[in-house]
Amino acid sequence: MSQTTELPHTSAETRHRLLMAGAEIFAAQGFRGATVRDICAKAGVNIAAINYHFGDKVRLYESVLQDQLGSVLQKYPPTLGTSPSSSPDERLYAFVFSFFLRVLDQSPGSWHGPLMAREMAEPTVALDRLVETVLRPLIDALNTLLAEFLGPDAPPPLIQACAASVVGQILFYRHCQPVISKLNPSLTYRREDLERLARHVTDFSLAGIRAMALESQR
Amino acid sequence: MSQTTELPHTSAETRHRLLMAGAEIFAAQGFRGATVRDICAKAGVNIAAINYHFGDKVRLYESVLQDQLGSVLQKYPPTLGTSPSSSPDERLYAFVFSFFLRVLDQSPGSWHGPLMAREMAEPTVALDRLVETVLRPLIDALNTLLAEFLGPDAPPPLIQACAASVVGQILFYRHCQPVISKLNPSLTYRREDLERLARHVTDFSLAGIRAMALESQR
Amino acid sequence: MSQTTELPHTSAETRHRLLMAGAEIFAAQGFRGATVRDICAKAGVNIAAINYHFGDKVRLYESVLQDQLGSVLQKYPPTLGTSPSSSPDERLYAFVFSFFLRVLDQSPGSWHGPLMAREMAEPTVALDRLVETVLRPLIDALNTLLAEFLGPDAPPPLIQACAASVVGQILFYRHCQPVISKLNPSLTYRREDLERLARHVTDFSLAGIRAMALESQR
Amino acid sequence: MSQTTELPHTSAETRHRLLMAGAEIFAAQGFRGATVRDICAKAGVNIAAINYHFGDKVRLYESVLQDQLGSVLQKYPPTLGTSPSSSPDERLYAFVFSFFLRVLDQSPGSWHGPLMAREMAEPTVALDRLVETVLRPLIDALNTLLAEFLGPDAPPPLIQACAASVVGQILFYRHCQPVISKLNPSLTYRREDLERLARHVTDFSLAGIRAMALESQR
DNA sequence: AATGAATGAGCCTTCATTCAT
DNA sequence: GATGAATGAAGGCTCATTCAT
């Protein structure tokens, strides 16, 4: 029932239930729209439990974000099924596909996608740490990979623009989902759909990147 | 001060002040976070004025969205400086550049960008109408343009995927601005910056689209 | 169109429309529940017209009461079709029947019944004057009539108790109408129904009064 | 002060204070006129307590009505001191006297009379349930009793008319109290006064009922 | 250690009234 | 003389948080 943790006298069970319920409700309602009453009700715990275990609503939210991001990065690492010796094309595809899997994961208990989308639209204090611990390393990895395509002398702004082009194509499906589902209601996000999307984005981007490389070297 | 008597029986002045103040505060705080007190204070009008002129907070919000969208579409139309006889490349550039101008416009009183970004992240009842009156025609126009590149027999899903690739690259700068400005604080969005971004996105996309066209015809 | 009155420069038409609309809405919603906006809307006049013509909401209400009471007393006088030479039984029936007609009149524009019922339940400053100008004369007349039955030496408390018994039976159908219509939904208040009710109340009361007279003289 | 722990998981004390303060203020001001701020102030509790314990103002009002009605019915049951073997005259007197006691009770904390009078004049959603759970059984009991006087073949409309005559005489003192106290300021409602009134109404009605019975059998 | 009642600031809205044409 | 826009006080209710057990 209760896990043995470094905090022997707090109920890890209650903490976990709050993290799960909080993720779901913050994803659905946003930080402001979510109420501690709703979260505690869904978690089946006392209304004072959030303050007791996390201090306040903000710190529960930060913990939820941290928890969801950690889970999804462990589940779908950016190198997904490749090794440093894999071809650049393969590694780009792995980066794109794993990114799609993370932001559009529909597994039960997985709320990383909508949480991050909301955090972009309405940043909270949590964003700073996320950028430094997670997003910057991710973008650096992509930049390094793109440098292999663009050559050692490619100007950093070009690399960054290409990175933006790649990531933007992916995030479109996440950030504009409300509109996409209205314009094209039949679009689904099962694993095979994401594979197809990742294939398109990779091919489209490879052509774009190579064109940029040529232009840059001219 | 001076009353523009276009709307003889309503106080156009007060309406306009509320639309401006509402746009700024809704953009900064979101629909939920914005308070009618703040909006009225910024507009310099009585707190009951929203009720009197717009009915309630929701309808003020819808009017603000409508107003901002109308302004920006008139200011930066999607065909921006081109005609139907312009080359497809030129028209694609016009589409991309005008899109950038709209979503990243920094003119005083222009809050269309952040408002739409929030509306995507946390849709309200206003989104339905926006999709039908504005976004669908816009996407249709892009699809028609892309069909010129991809050929008459290009499968609709491919056209849509390419349209998503183009729009995604643009919106990335809008939706991820909080992260971008942390990762790359020197990036600015003056008109010449947007021109450069539009140039990159257009060239990147043209290469991607042409690769897709080749692949599709194979 | 506009009546020539002692106030040549105010619109008698507007006053009249406000009195009619006010009667209907005060009757339906009570003084507190009625809003000046609703009344002015129903009257088809400007929202400031009440203050302009009557001073404020309270004084409109008092005028409405006065107006309705005057109308109904003129329409259904307490002596209704009898003369001082009619028999006491006939005069009691006339008193009862006319009372029923006044409090349950359903003619268009006639709101005296519900207005008075509300005024009893939630007295306003208007009640004082109503009591002195209308209700006291009415009760005095009834007491005088009852004294004919009870004899010259009947103690005033007995007369008052009998008067209360008579009036109470009538007002029951007015004050408890919401309950009556739930308990007995088929009951209606057309003129012939009121005639039957008046017949019953008169006969019931005559028997009661005569029993009281006997008991009193013993 | 002292917690009566009949309801272990709710604060019975706070609930009770709100029920008492609510009864007094609803009786004095009506549902609309009463403000939650006033009620909470009088109860000496926080303004959010109504929401916490009762949900909202309407449900507090319903609870107050329920509570007051229950108290007064337990305190003064309609059979008041009689048994089924008592004479019909005695049982009619008991019905009338207990009715007077309920609607004109002046004990501290007893607000059933004015509350019900207001509910008649301006019915709320609470009236439906009151009619079915309390008023209909009460009227049915009276009808059954009156049938003993009027005979087994008395037509139901006659029974109902007599019941109305009885109840109307009683309620007059409740519903017209504001007028009565102006017309006859010396009238008081101590227990002995109510006894006298009940005696009059019973005797008056017995004569009336017996006259109706004779007429009906003719 | 954990509960649930209590807190008070703040939210959107409604209202009768007044003011400037 | 009559309008309709503007006013500001108050209304019911919600919320994250704290307190007493």
Task: Looking at this protein, list some descriptive labels.
Tetracycline Repressor, domain 2, 218 residues, 74% helix, DNA-binding, homotetramer, mainly alpha, Arc Repressor Mutant, subunit A, 2 domains
**Which range does the strand content of chain A fall in?**
under 5%
Point out poorly predicted stretches of chain A. 1-9
Instruction: Estimate the helix proportion of chain A, in percent.
Output: over 70%
Biggest beta sheet attributes of chain A: none
Tell me the number of structural domains of chain A.
2
The total count of helices of chain A amounts to 10
Q: What's the architecture of the largest domain in chain A in CATH terms?
A: Orthogonal Bundle
N- to C-terminal distance of chain A? 66 Å
CATH topology of the largest domain in chain A: Tetracycline Repressor, domain 2
Please give the most extensive interface between any two protein chains, plus how many residues each contributes.
Answer: A-B, 50 and 49 residues
Secondary structure class of chain A reads mainly alpha
The first-level CATH class of the largest domain in chain A is given as Mainly Alpha
Large-scale geometry of chain A: elongated
Quaternary organization: homotetramer
**Can you tell me the CATH superfamily of the largest domain in chain A?**
Tetracycline Repressor, domain 2
Q: How many extended strands of chain A? A: 0
Mean pLDDT of chain A: 92
List the helices and strands and how they pair.
4 copies of one chain form a homotetramer.
Chain A: H1 12-33, H2 36-43, H3 49-54, H4 57-75, H5 88-104, H6 112-121, H7 126-150, H8 156-175, H9 177-183, H10 191-217
Helix pairs in contact in A: 1-2, 1-4, 1-6, 5-7, 5-8, 5-10, 7-8, 8-10
The structure holds a DNA duplex (21 and 21 nucleotides).
